[in-house]
Each structure stands twice: as C-alpha cells, then as structure tokens.
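Instructor's aside before we start: the two examples that follow are unrelated to each other. I chose them only because their records fit on one page, so don't look for a connection. First example below.
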Amino acid sequence: MEFNVFTLIFLIATLSYVVTLLWLNVRQDKALSSSFNAVPDEFSGKITLAQHQKAAEYTQAKLKVNHFEVLFSTVVLLVWTLGGGLNWLDNIWQVQNYNSLNTGAGFIISLMIIGSLIDLPFSLYRTFVLEQKFGFNKMTAATFMGDLLKALLLMLIIGLPLIYAILWLMVEMGEFWWVYVWLVLTGFSLLMLWLYPTYIAPIFNKFKPLDNLELKVKIDHLLNRTGFKSDGVFVMDGSKRSSHGNAYFTGIGKNKRIVFFDTLLEGMEDQEVEAILAHELGHFHHKHIRKHMISSFTISLLGLALLGYLINQPWFFSGLGVQTMSNHTALILFTLTLPIFSFFIAPISNALSRKHEFEADAFAAKHTHAEDLISSLVKLYRDNASTLTPDRLYSAFHDSHPSASIRIAELKRRA
C-alpha cells in the first residue's frame, strides 16, 4: 500500500481517538470508585447504598467491556483500511464482472454482514453475560436469533434498494450527485419516521392500547392541556427482552405514538407516569425533534459535500489503503473514518441535547408537578442501575442527558 500525508493524519487521529476514549473510561472508573461507599446526599433515603453500589458495579462492568471493544474495533478498522481488507473484499466482487451497481451493492452488503458477524460475540456477551449478571436480561436465545434474522431481512428489503439508489445517483447525476443523494436520504429518513410506529416496530415488539383507565384519563387531560395529538397511547412488551424501563415518542405528522415500556409502568405511580409523559411532550412543544432533524439533515448535506470532494482525490483512497478508486469504496471509507474525525465535537452536540432536556423538564414541571418528575427519575435511575456520580468529562463526551444530581437539583429549584 502507498503511504501519504493523509495516512499519517489518519493514524494520528485514530491514536488520539483511542487514547481519549480509554482515558475517559479510566476517569469514569475512578469517579465511581471514589463515590462507591456513599450515596449522594440528594438521593439519601431514596436510593440505598446497595442500589448505589450495584449501579457503580454495573457501570464499571460495562466500562471493562468497552475498553476491549475500543481496542478491538480499532484493530478491525486498521485491518479493513491500511491492512488491505477493503481491497481484498473489493477484488472478490470486481472479478465477478458484474456491472458497477451490482458490484458496489454486493461489496457494501457483504461488508455490513461481515461487520455484524464481527460484532456478534460482543452482543452475545453484553446480553447473556453482563446484562444477565445484573438481572436485566429477559431475552432468550430464540428471541435473540429471531431479532438478528428480522434485522437482516429488513436490511435486505429496505437497505438494499436504498444502496442501489445512492450508487445510481452517484453515477448518473454528475458533479453534484451529492445533492440528489442528500434529497433521497432526507426523504428516506422522513418516510422511515412515518412508517416505524405502525409497520416496523411491531415486527419486533407487541403493542397494546393502555388499559389503565385512570392513567388514560390523566394522559388525555394532559394532551388536551398541551394541545398535543397522537395516534394513541400504547404499552410495549419491553419485559420480553429486558427489565430496563423507558418511554418514548415515535413517528411524525399525524402518525405519532406515545409508547410506555411495560417495565416502566410496573414501578410507577400514575402521576409519575404523567410527569414522564409531560417531559416528552416538552420536547415537542419546544420543537426539539424538528430542530434535531434540521441540524442532522444540514450536517449530512455538509458531509456529502465533503465526500463529493474526497471521491475525486487519489490521496484519500491510497492514504487509507485502497488501490482502486470507486464510488462504493469511497462511501465505505467515509463511513468508517467519520467517527474518528468527528468524535471531538461530541461535547458540543451533547451540551445542546442537555439544554433541550432541561427545557423539557421545565415544561413538565409547569404542566404537572416537579416532585412527581423527580420521584419518577429517581426510580428510573434506581431500577436501571444508572450511575449517580459520573465523571464530568466522561459525561460531556458520552451523555446526552444531564447527570442525575444536576438534573434533580434544577427540578428542586423549580419545585
């Protein structure tokens, strides 16, 4: 392979990425160890020392897995790029003498399948060892394999036509192909948001209308007060896979659903569920979803414009160990290396996300009771074994939500 200046830049960026990730993990581990024997004062009486220590041990166990994952994934990245792995796979498809579209689509799909197989041992360990050890896993081997097969079929049914469309546009649309690709990806994203609640999510989980009449009345009143319309309130069988609790909104336009995990409803009072819902409604009231979509679409446009430049630069390919310039290898090289070069702007996007969380909390405190949201959050932290004492820098890079202490303190101020 041919080394150039970009090879050196890539290696320096990769080393910086790996060292920073491992350093942040070490900081997080130290923060957990230093607070291991004392529950933070604001949670005293609500979370026991045993529950606090379980959260610390759970987080530390995940950190150990992540240590190995970071190193392993970096080795895999270097093997695919500078090690010649992409060249090897590309040559396999090139000698088949298919047209450029079939060659490119076959290359990308086969790479995705190989990547899934490489990640499979980590998925198995996280589910059946780590989550099992801490009492969260409820998934059977049959459910796990069923999910894998369903995801593979969806990738082929939905992903393959999209890959063909992108590769075709890159050939046929001339110098500004990236604008047309961006339009297709934007339309595809919006379509998936609309389709997901009704057609895709039910492939993996069962959804039933909320049957708690008293809670439903509370929710209907809240929706009327806030002027929110949805396609219904549903309960999802999250307990089929995990004991972690959660709630979310999904969909766009009139095809929106409010979804509660059955595991969340089991441990919450009605007024606490109402407060959680009010928080989610706050995101819609402040148009956080729309703002996120606009920023995401803008970033993707800029990224594709950059790729439109890089795709014609021989140093981009040779610097990453690829001998033959092609549209499909350019797409993969860009996708593989983007996380390395974009990692250090993560604190900026996370800071914006945390600002949105505070605004949604304020909305919930206004339309329900701050005390109910506080008690529901404490239960979520406790039941999900979420650490109460994360390291500040680790949190800045990894957490889209404010830390527990800061969030509770702000809600108490509003209460």
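Example two begins here.
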Amino acid sequence: MKKELLDKLTSKDAVIGIVGLGYVGLPLMLRYNEVGFRVLGFDIDQTKVEALMQGQSYIEHIPAAAIANARAGGFEATADFARASEADALIICVPTPLNKYREPDLSFVLDTTDSLVPHLRRGQIVSLESTTYPGTTDEELLPRIQSRGMKVGEDIFLVYSPEREDPGNPDFTTRTIPKVCGGITEACQEAGLALYGGVIDRVVPVSSTRAAEMTKLLENIHRAVNIGLVNEMKIVADKMGIDIHEVIRAAATKPFGFVPYHPGPGLGGHCIPIDPFYLTWKAREYGLHTRFIELAGEVNSAMPDWVVSKIANALNERKKSINGSRVLVLGIAYKKNVDDMRESPSVHIMERLRALGADVAYSDPHVPQFPKMREHHFDLASIALTPESIAQYDCVVLATDHDRFDYASIQASAQLVVDSRGKYLSILPNVVKA
C-alpha cells in the first residue's frame, strides 16, 4: 500500500482532497493544483462550494482568476463527503476554536473526521493541519480511522502537519514556508514527507505527531507571550509619559538579543489568541498550571478594555462622555491589509463602546460589510472616509493600521484620534496614544 501511494504522490497521479476551504485550505488547494495534482475540495458551506465551482473567490488576497485557473486545471469543490473515497490524500484544514470556558472545541475536527471515516479506503493518507493540543491525532483520529478495520501504518497512513499560513503576507507563500510533519509510524512519516515534498520547498520531519502538534503551539505561544509582555510595557510606559513605540524602535537597533514585538488593541486571528489555551487545557491532565501562558493571555485579553478607557478619558477631557458620542473605528480586520475578521480585537472594542452607549460606526477598505459572525452582531457597512465624514465623529479610533488609510487626512479632519497602533509618531494636539 505504501509503495503504491508513494508512487502516486511522486508521479502526481494522486488525487488530493482538501477538507475545509478557508484561509488555510484554499491556498493549499491552489498550490497542489499549480504543480499538476488533481484536487478535490470539501466544505460543508454550500455557498463556498458554489462560488468556487463558478471560479469565484471569497477571500480578498486570493484573486478570482486563481480560482478560475484552478477550475481549468481540474479542481472541483463539493459538499458531498462520500466522494472522499476518490482522494488518495485527505488534508483536514478546519477551525479549532475555544468554547466560552476557554477550553478546546474540537467539534469541527471530530465531526469532519466522522464524516470522512465511512468513506476511507486502503492506500490513503490522512493529514490533520488544524492547530490543536499534543495527543489529538493519536488519541482522537487514530482510533476513529482504525475503526474501519484498517491498520494505520500499513493499510492507511496518518500524519499531523500544522498549517503556517500568514494571510496577506507578501514575503511568504504556501510553497516557501517550511512544513513540519510528524507521522504515527515511520511508514506514515514517509508518506507524509512525500505528500508535502512535491509542493513545499522544505519539509521538516519530527519524531511524532505529538512533537508536530507541540511545535505549532510553541510558535504561537512564543508570539502571544512576547506580545503580552510588550502590551504590559505599553501600559507602564503610558503611565510614565513615555512613548513605547519610540522605545521599541530604539531597542530594535541592538543587533543581537532583541526581537521587536509591537503592542496593539489586543490579539486577533485564529491562532495567537486561541492556541496557547490548547496547551493550557492539556497541561492540566498532567497536573501542571501554565502560569506564564495564562498571564500573557490575561494581559492581551484586557487590551480592548484599555483602549476603551483611553477613549473615555480622551472624550472626558473634551467634556464629552462615551454615552451619546459618535465613534468611528478604523480597521476591523484583525491585522493590516487583509479582510480576515477572526478574533479581531476591533470587534471587542466596538461591542464595549456600544454597551457604554456610543453610536459606533467603522471604516475598513477590506471589509465593506460587517460579516455574519457566530458571536458578534453589527448591522453596519464601511463608511467612506472623506474630510467631511471624518469630522462628523467625536472620536476616531485607529484599531487596524491598513496601508490604504490616508493618515494625514484622517488626523487633519478628525476632532479626536485615539491611536492604538502607534501610527502617529509626532505629538499632535488631537491624537491620543492608546
């Protein structure tokens, strides 16, 4: 079975199944299609399937032309998981959020696996890319797959290879970002390296699926902890009347021993605000309390409240209250130059302002209409920025520093700007750093 699979992957005769066609799955589909594999995409969202089949894209940084080219190259999208038997490789790229208790919600991974299992066959490889806690692949996926009566490592192959997509980053592509891969057995590992080796410039083998799962968590915990540190430093510097952004720029001139991290209004994206708590939860099983990780999470989670307090103080100094004030939030994507709204701190700021009685609006060139979200609800569309429209608001909050904003015009037109991204370097009478 292994030789037959390896031959198919090497010759590009294998059919690649991508399960979950979002920010991770769609670029991966394009890469496999680009090098000549036939790709079959699976998603439970029928509207996504229909859009892809019509050559349309629903992710801003992925052009429709790329989808149309993939369709011409044989790509198909479907919501019919029974077609999983057609694929030689099944790569699972579905969300792994937290529940309201900050505990892992594996329902997407497990429901997806349960939908695939009845249609698995000998000679396939299954790869999980969703970020999760160490042990998920061998504790949850392995027994489900073996329930089909197939032996993993002989009849069918199972690996974990964490996604490393960075939406909107022009410096790295799916091809150029090294890929970590760990298999349940040596044969699984060999199949995993063949699966990714034909499309990724560098594949990094590790000794087990658990090591691969922990690798992804370490990457994101490293960022979360350092961002938590610099966010706390920002609060201390603010109390001392020091511009933390000036300090960071100065510290970054040291050619060794310092890596600049930048404070902001909170953490966003599907990884950094969520992944550390997957390890925190799993560590409890071993009687461990991950104090460092949880402290960073507390600091980062408090940043939207910090920004709102700065807004309240700034308005108060101008003899206004939040209640009844018109507040315009600039940027509601979680980071600059993308349309990705996942875990955006901007939305938490908007909710807190609304709860305090503010009349909230937003402007974001990448998000023309506030999308439907599971936990956040605003019936709003992006405001066009003109000197006249900006001047109508009591406060303009810079939450996401998109390059397409005209910062000079915003500052010149606004009554008050609360800058949570350190975009304004000089001291200006109507700008408050947050």
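The chain has 15 helices and 13 strands.
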